[in-house]
Write a structure and sequence with these properties.
heterodimer; A: mainly alpha; rod-shaped; B: mainly alpha
Chain lengths: ~60, ~250
């Protein structure tokens, strides 16, 4: 480990903005994709559930 | 070999068989991605020494290079699935290429932005119209074009064929990106790692980059599998097996 202090680590030798924006953006994009996919999956399940309920009521009326 | 022949691999080319298999694999690929990312980040920030020319700014390449690799690699995988889809008329193949496109686009954007963030302090410019940068920007447009074309055609089978054709034609751009630093006089540096010669960098830096590349690779497989499962649910919603799936779940 070649960092003498936490402050020195965050300062990144004066390149803090460039380094932390790069890694931060990576984290943000990954989180956005994972959460977006979770929402998409839940929506797909909800749509299927709703379609199933509508089928059931249709059948009930037909009888 | 016995395992390879014991399982009927073609069985998994149909959505009803593939859907549960993908569900089983997803947590493993997420776990592998997390482990490789942790090791890669540790090497990037704690082990790798300061570069004597670039200072600490060079640490950007630990995400930039793996992201750029993934942007090209995922495009080739996407185009391969598109080719299979066209040749075999297999709907799961088209769904796979569709599932890879947003992740590929994400890594392309990441490669461009991190490259820009490295270029500003090192070259003194956010952007130059250099062959490497321009061809990578075209790659982003190809991904976006593929997604937009798929979304703009209502009939899914026609949308599959049209977007797959675009994916295949666009694949010529990938070797152009890769060899651009050789073919043209670019500001972007040449490859630091090649198949034919020893890497031109310290072994710790190389290990850090490879670990993050592996993390991105495992992550891409995980999210592509999650997305292909969403696409299956959305597109096969009228199929009996999907309906039964809902009954089991709720």
């Amino acid at each position: 480990m070649h960092w003498n202090s936490l402050g020195e680590f965050f300062a990144m030798g004066g390149y803090a903005f460039y380094v932390w924006t790069s890694f931060g953006l990576t984290a943000v994009l990954v989180a956005w994709e994972v959460l977006g996919l979770r929402a998409r999956r839940n929506q797909a399940w909800r749509d299927l559930q709703q379609a199933r309920l509508m089928d059931q009521t249709d059948l009930g009326e037909a009888r | 070999m016995k395992i390879m022949t014991g399982i009927n691999w073609f069985k998994y080319s149909s959505p009803p068989a593939f859907y549960p298999l993908a569900g089983l694999l997803i947590p493993w690929f997420y776990t592998l991605a997390t482990v490789f990312a942790a090791v890669g980040l540790y090497i990037s920030f704690a082990v790798a020494p300061t570069d004597f020319q670039q200072g600490e700014a060079y640490r950007i390449i630990f995400v930039h290079v793996p992201a750029a690799w993934m942007s090209m690699f995922l495009y080739l995988v996407m185009a391969t699935w598109a080719g299979f889809g066209l040749a075999l008329n297999a709907r799961l193949s088209h769904m796979m290429s569709q599932a890879l496109a947003p992740t590929g686009a994400m890594f392309t954007l990441l490669a461009l932005v991190t490259g820009s963030l490295w270029g500003r302090p090192m070259w003194g410019a956010w952007w130059v119209w250099d062959a490497r940068l321009t061809s990578e920007l075209i790659l982003l447009f190809l991904y976006i074009g593929f997604i937009a074309l798929q979304a703009s055609i209502d009939d899914p089978r026609r949308a599959d064929r049209a977007s797959s054709l675009l994916a295949l034609v666009g694949a010529v751009n990938v070797p152009i990106i890769y060899f651009s630093v050789k073919w043209w006089n670019t500001l972007h540096q040449g490859a630091s790692i090649s198949m034919t010669s020893a890497p031109k960098m310290a072994i710790t830096m190389l290990t850090g980059m490879l670990m993050l590349a592996l993390a991105f690779w495992m992550y891409s497989i995980a999210v592509a599998l999650v997305r292909v499962r969403c696409i299956i649910l959305e597109r096969e919603r009228r199929a009996d097996w999907v309906r039964q799936l809902v009954e089991v779940k709720f």
